[in-house]
């Protein structure tokens, strides 16, 4: 499963958030397939469509799909110099599919700011810089190694791939040297394949989390720190999600009704973790399809662009191996017509084959040979 790694400087609220994630997940359900790793927290992906399908079909059981967050341990500062725990920090980031960068945006004189700086003031931009700089330096090192290999081949042998790679390296290097992430570079279609092959840290999709004070989370747009984080995120085409880790910790153990009540009281319509999960899901290019029978209605996560047999394989490898076709209706059609039978009578039930690209919101029934 694709996972998003939570990073941030010490004392910005990562553990508080991660604990809330772990607790919220543990409360919600028992996931037989969840990763058993103390650094991975599994949460349900909130999806109103699943609730609506359940209302229509009235199955015995409804199972949401899940999403995994990874807690990235290790020391940030000096990581790119390759010292012990710092190395581990970079290695851990290399393994995740997206980065969730938690930034302190709350004032609290009881919570020290870890950074050894001139001021003790909260300074989200400096904090972001500190982490990003380590990632940028690590990427510069990777790039320089690639230069050493590819430069000569490109010049002397005029190898086409090497020439293209060199062009990409030439594009990335000045950006990194200017202290900016490689994700800010605009690449051509043919360059993207090369970019992926470089496995850089600063090309991974990112989202910023502004961790605001529990007193301000109901009206976050008035917080200067939030504005700063948003503006920076925009330079990387990244989203900003506002949460208060402390609030998340407080509501993690509540049941759904109590949670809703608590959130309403502080002026929120959904929990920060729910919001974060949905944005991370989108960031990773994930979609949801459903299976819907009388016994069970269930949501499944897929990577957008996947074809029907691959989607079937998410449920069971036998479904993929023996795939014949997928009986398909869209969520919108089910809601409009009210039942599978009515969808069929309206001529909207489709039989899709091996080449069908599964769409977000599809309700699928796989036919396969055993
Ligand atoms: P980490 O080092 O990034 O994992 O940070 P922690 O989660 O351990 O948080 C550091 C300190 O900040 C703890 O004392 C938290 O209780 C506090 N803290 C975290 N989030 C919030 C918040 O939203 N509001 C306030 N006031 N304090 C917070």
Automatic annotation (TrEMBL):
It holds the Pfam family YchF-GTPase_C. GO terms for molecular function: ATP binding; ATP hydrolysis activity; GTP binding; metal ion binding; ribosomal large subunit binding. Residues 2-263 form the OBG-type G domain. Keywords: ATP-binding, Magnesium, Metal-binding, Nucleotide-binding. ATP binds at residues 11-16. The keyword Metal-binding applies. GO terms for cellular component: cytoplasm. Signal peptide: none annotated. Gene3D superfamilies: 3.10.20.30, P-loop containing nucleotide triphosphate hydrolases (3.40.50.300), TGS-like domain (1.10.150.300). Its cofactor is Mg(2+). SUPFAM superfamilies: P-loop containing nucleoside triphosphate hydrolases (SSF52540), TGS-like (SSF81271). It comes from the Bacteria. Residues 285-368 form the TGS domain. Belongs to the TRAFAC class OBG-HflX-like GTPase superfamily. OBG GTPase family. YchF/OLA1 subfamily. ATPase that binds to both the 70S ribosome and the 50S ribosomal subunit in a nucleotide-independent manner. This is Ribosome-binding ATPase YchF. It comes from Pseudolactococcus paracarnosus. The gene is ychF.
